[in-house]
Each structure stands twice: as C-alpha cells, then as structure tokens.
Design brief:
It holds the Pfam family YycI. The chain is of the alpha+beta class. It is built from 6 helices and 13 strands. A hairpin with a 4-residue loop joins strand 4 and strand 5.
Length: about 280
Amino acid sequence: MDWSKTKSIFIIVFLVLNVFLFILFMDKYENSQLSLRSPLSPDERLVEDNITFNSLSNEADPQPYLNAKAYEFTEIDVNGLEQQTGAVRNNILLDSQLAQPVNVANPSSPEELEALLNEFVIGGENYEFWTYEQDEQRLIYYQQFEGMPIFHNITGRLVIHLNDQNQAVSYEQTMMSSIEKFPDEQDLISPREAFLEYYKLNAVEPNSEVIEAELGYYSIIQLIDAASETQVLTPAWKMTIEQEDGDLEEHYLNAVNFSIIEIDFEGLEFERLEEIEDTVE
C-alpha cells in the first residue's frame, strides 16, 4: 500500500466533508436568523407583493342601514304596460314580452335600452346596468337607491333577454319598495382600511391592482319569504381588482364591520323564488 497516496485521499475526503458540514451549518444559521427577524408589516408585504391600491380613499362618509320590502305587482300594473304583454309570477316577479324587439348595437354597453327602461318598465329609471351575460344572451340590471347600487339582490333585479340578433325581446323584473333609512347613520370603514383587512387574509394575488371601490348596499337578512319579509341592507364596498394577467375580480366587504360577503350567484336566479314559495307553503 502506498501510504502517502492513501493519506492524501483521506485528507481530501475530510476537506470535502468539512466543506459540506460548513455549508449545512451556514444554512441552519441563516434560517435561524430569519426566524428571529420580525415578520413583515402589512405595508412591507404590499411592497413585496407589488400590490397597487393608490385609488382607495382613507375616508368614508357615514351611511344608514336600509330596510325594504319586495314590491307585489298587481293587475293594474300589468294592464298599464304599454307595447308589451305582461304576467305576474310568485306575486313579485313581472314577466313581460315586448311587442317590438329593440336593437342593441353593443350589449356590453346597451345605451339604446335607456329609453325602454324609462318609458316602459315600471320604476325602470331606478335600475342600473350591471353586466352582459353572453352565453345566456341576457343583460342584468340591479336596482339602486339614491344613486347607490343594491348589490346582487333577487328582489331588485331586472333581466332583459336577447334573441340571436342582439335584440331585446322580453324581460323579467322584481322591484324593492318601501325603502327607508334607519334613523342612525353608521360610521363606515374606509375603502383603504377594508382592502387592507381583506389583503391580510392572503386573498389578493401578487402584482395586482385595485381599480375601483364602489359603495352600495347588500342584504344582510337571509331571504325566507320574498313576498313578505322585510330586508335589512347594510352599506358594502365592492372592490374591483385587476390581476397580473388582466382578469378582473370583484370582492364584496361589509362597510360597517369588515366581514367578507360571499355572493350566492345561483340563488339570484328567479327560479329561486318558486323554491322559496314552495318551501313556505
């Protein structure tokens, strides 16, 4: 055996082993140092995640709760309709067929239908265009109160149906009535505060931007009997967030107590009213 060569091999092996152990030691040391550091503040996390929300205000004017009731359409309402044939379902749903189709050049911005709403739809001036659902060939409107939208409410909803030529041919309508303000106004969370609280839940993707915060109302009382129950509506923020890929997301937050609002979109379909009526009976 060549002892000198063997000794050299052992020395090299020990050097490699020492280097390896030193690397392990430094890795554990750095990890321990990271664990000792204080966690990032929300502001630091926002910078790290590249979240932009400059459009959000730090202030919000107080607003009251509202209560309202679903309007019950009558035969007088139906007989008073012009250039259409209507019928009432479930007491609170008006189903109408237009005598003449109305052309809609751009369903995503149906300006032509403003005259239809103002002249031929009961209380039509109180509805605001919401979205165009192309697959369903329909336009969705929601009622508003004093310029503030009532978000996703089955008893304040107008659905205009289109044919294959993008012509409005019929509509279904529910309407809220007896809308009253509670006597006391509530201090509201500012849109910036609401967003930061939402962001703490890790619900916002990195490289996103808050495009808009809109104040409206949302029902906080679960619908049981749509034709008789009085609803209580709370001020709520709708946050529109643009993700890195350009997709837009809408998130809803209670403007009084920070709670997140989950929208039941299936529950907004008018067939739900028939289910409620059957349950009550």
